[in-house]
Specification:
This protein is mainly alpha-helical and 357 residues long. The protein is 46% helix and 6% strand. Among the domains are: 88 residues, Tyrosine recombinase, N-terminal domain (DNA polymerase, domain 1); 123 residues, no CATH class. Helix 3 packs antiparallel against helix 4.
């Protein structure tokens, strides 16, 4: 199964051939290791790294383990055609595959050939987000408990993406200013969102539980938690300090897939996703709701309550207000939107409303 990018994260902008003389030489020998090395050098996320490696590996296997340097445009187009026609993948998956191969050929193999510009891009179709009503959100929250309930309430109350919520550090929760700071969200951008007043007591209690886990790690002399980029070398003790600890720590240690260091990780998103799915089913909701749906609910319900579109844009961290405008579709139909002519017709006293004539 292909490692998926976050549900709200599309592929990066298509890479155009440009000079690559500024890139240092690769140290790895195997092509997939070279791909990993280049992705890490350019600070791509682990999720993107896993997806790109998977797709490039699938491309190599599709062509009988031929070396990619021996292939060019026709082979790339044949693989993309296979994905679209034989595998019937979605346009987003097609785009991910194209982005992975362009990155591989331009940044790793350092090919600057005309065929790179001639590959057709898949047409993206507009998809409306799934949005739950307030009552449906309440029903889902009823089916959750413990940390999963707190995490779901945080997603709905702040509009955070699931990865942003799981990666929260103790220092990023500001009770005095009633704010939550998102560090390096999508696009490596920071932003600030509100901290719901009703959530503050539960978050304080969660930090109390997390501090017990942190104190146990300090007592055991473990490696602490991961800190971004080169801060671990600049501040060697930061990873073991309380401000850098996770708000939602995992209950056991795990091995860092990149460094191989055994240390404390934050909660796994798959664990929460499974609990959320069970809660949706228990609530009798037939919509295809995921944890990311709570972000859609946050934006839509804010707009329904009269919040300004620009304010919602800032809270969501959208670079373009056009992205935020997708949530206004709910305002145009349904209870507070356009009235169906059938409802006006059935208000006439000479027409029955029970369907029996």
């Amino acid at each position: 199964m292909m490692p998926a990018l976050p549900s709200d994260q599309g592929p990066r902008k298509y890479l155009r051939p440009r000079p690559t003389v500024d890139l240092p030489p690769l140290r790895a020998i195997r092509v997939l290791d070279q791909l990993r090395e280049r992705l890490r050098l350019m600070h791509y996320s682990l999720r993107t790294e896993e997806t790109y490696v998977y797709l490039v590996k699938a491309f190599i296997r599709f062509h009988g383990l031929r070396h990619p340097a021996e292939m060019s445009g026709p082979e790339v187009e044949a693989f993309l055609t296979h994905l679209a026609d034989d595998r019937s993948v979605a346009p987003s998956t097609h785009s991910h595959a194209l982005s992975a191969l362009l990155f591989f050929y331009i940044k790793v193999l350092r090919h600057d050939l005309p065929w790179l510009q001639q590959i057709g891009h898949p047409r993206r179709h507009r998809r409306l987000p799934v949005v739950l009503s307030v009552e449906e959100v309440r029903g889902v929250l009823t089916g959750l408990q413990g940390e999963h309930l707190l995490l779901a309430r945080l997603l709905y109350g702040t509009g955070l993406r699931i990865t942003e919520a799981l990666q929260l550090r103790v220092k990023d929760v500001d009770f005095a200013q009633r704010a939550v700071i998102v560090r390096e969200g999508k696009g490596a951008k920071d932003r600030e969102v509100m901290l719901p007043q009703s959530l503050a007591p539960e978050l304080r209690h969660q930090l109390g539980r997390a501090r017990l886990v942190w104190a146990a790690d300090i007592e055991a002399g473990t490696a602490g938690v991961e800190v971004p980029h080169a801060l671990e070398r600049k501040y060697p003790r930061a990873g073991a300090s309380w401000p850098w600890f996770w708000v939602f720590p995992q209950d056991h240690h795990s091995t860092d897939p990149r460094s191989g260091v055994v240390r404390r990780h934050h909660l796994y998103d798959q664990t929460f996703q499974r609990a959320f799915k069970r809660a949706v089913q228990a609530a009798g909701i037939t919509k295809h709701a995921t944890p990311h749906t709570l972000r859609h609910c946050f934006a839509t319900h804010l707009l329904q309550s009269g919040s300004d579109i620009r304010t919602v844009q800032e809270l969501l961290g959208h670079a373009d207000v056009a992205t935020t405008l997708i949530y206004t579709h709910v305002l145009k139909v349904g209870g507070g939107g356009v009235r169906s002519p059938l409802d006006s017709l059935l208000t006439l006293t000479d027409l029955p409303q029970n369907g029996c004539w």
